[in-house]
Amino acid sequence: MAVQNNTTPSAKRRFQSPFDVATPPGAEGWQELYPYYAHISEERRSVEEQKLWYFDGMHNPEPLYPFDTIMTENWWVAASQMTTKVWPIPVAMGIDQRIINGYLYVSPNSIDDPAEVARRAELFNERAGHYYENWDTIYAEWKKKANGCIERLKQIQFKPLPEFEPEENVYGHRGIYSSHDLLSSYNRLIENLFEMGSYHFEMLNLGYGAYLTFREFCQQAFPGISDQTITDMVSGIDILLFRPDDELRKLAARAIELSVDGALLDNLDPAAALKAVGALPSGAAWLAAYEESRNPWFWFSTGVGYTHSDAVWMTDPRLPFTALRSYIEALRRGEDIRRPLDKIIETRTRVTQEYRELLPTEDDREAFDGLVKLARTVYPYVEDHNFFVEHWHHSLFWEKVRELGEVFVAHKFFDDKEDIFYLHRHEVYDALYDMIIGWAVGTPPRGEVYWRPIIQKRRKIRDALAKWSPPPALGVPPESITEPLTIMLWGITQETIQQWLGGDTAEDGVLRGIAASAGKVTGRARLITESEQLYDVQDGEILVCRITAPSWAPVFQRISAAVSDVGGMMAHTAIISREYGLPAVVGTGFATVNVSTGDLIEVDGTEGTVRVLEKAVQA
């Protein structure tokens, strides 16, 4: 079997070698924050230097906290094993990872041996065919598995070790005690995360694969057809990720119906707003509706769920309350706050029929019908799984880790529960055992003096890493890219790579990316580099960011277009923009470098261009 490591010895241009990347000042020794297997290393130089490594700013836009690497390591195996061992996809292998200056870089592998491609294709067709033919049934089973995993996560608890073992453990002849419970709870927490990680990718690669197959058919049958036109044929499907936003719309309408809207508008602080509503005659009814909406729909991260630092609606409801007030104000003005679903479905029906009629034979039309039906069938899962996994499950997971952090604070290992995120998961196990030893024998554990200086040092290193700007890619450009997630989610194509090679400046004031959602808009830019800045968005502005998160959906009711540095046709920015009928350009690479808040820009979501018309005067 010949596996391509994305080499192209004849390439005339290449990115900086990952081995030549300098350490930012103040970040010396950053390697100790991460496990050895995540590093670029001299032992693997002959392979690593000849691969393309691109920055995964979609999932980890900031330098990784040591504990948060559990999420990257999770999908490192889970996503790759589906491509290599479970299906397997004929021309694609797994996606490799390395951490460079604290930032995650990834690299897809591919296969070029025709015999091996054919062997894998036979196996893939048989296994994937089973899933495609039984998709709805398997998806229903998947939801049960995901819900079961979440329920078991909820049951995990972390408590400080007691002074004396509880009587029920003694007189119940249990034989295992609090020390065992603490360790086993931590083991179950980690195992639960990896279990959900496996569910995450059980059907995802197949979802992208079905869409890619439909896309390839259209590109061959209709030369010159745009990706935007192809996505028009599968858009307009009601997906679960819009449910939290829909709940806010319902709550806004209910607030007006119950005459509690004034209290919600007059109190910007969510806690104060809830208190004010509760004091009103109809307040109890609205609060009941609010509680019903919260669980589970407020388990919604303002990021993509892969980092503990992203705020979650459930514990930080400022973003949903901001959206709620916006919806109330719109309803008071008599506006329709529903998504333009009817218009999107009309476009889907019309475009599908127009292109179907262009096909020359009945066999072609039957093939087209089958592929578009399959793409529409798998499309909801591609997005819906995110709510179960990255949002509901992962947000709960981070809260459980904080609960464990409180145990370390109680035992004088840490000053703050958030300190736990400066330890890798393997180190946490060692620290727990140190704690248990001290509890069992009565000698102060070394952890009481060992971890604080390490955490302090690592905090300074990570702060220094956060000041570094990671380049979009390192290493050698590949001859071809075939891995489905790389193309559809990250939007990495040969064209993308050529744009990156051109540098981080906009030629003639124009940035080029992927035309993700049709339309042309001119407006003032609002640069968002962290979720806290979402509260500053003004009506009609154009959102410019590295990548959006599904929980930003309420903001799309206010903006006129969206632009992102990273992402492909199936990235959240692209999907949300299409479903809200907004122009969008994704995968620009350098929009956040070239565009500032207040700049007058033109976004052409049909051509995939972003033009800077006028730079804002900086105060």
Automatic annotation (TrEMBL):
This is Pyruvate,water dikinase. The lineage of its organism: Bacteria, Pseudomonadati, Pseudomonadota, Betaproteobacteria, Burkholderiales. It is an enzyme of class 2 (transferase). GO terms for molecular function: pyruvate, water dikinase activity. Pfam families: PEP-utilizers. It comes from Hydrogenophaga laconesensis. The keyword Transferase applies. It comes from the Bacteria. The keyword Ribonucleoprotein does not apply. Residues 538-608 form the PEP-utilising enzyme mobile domain. Keywords: Pyruvate, Transferase. Its EC number is 2.7.9.2.
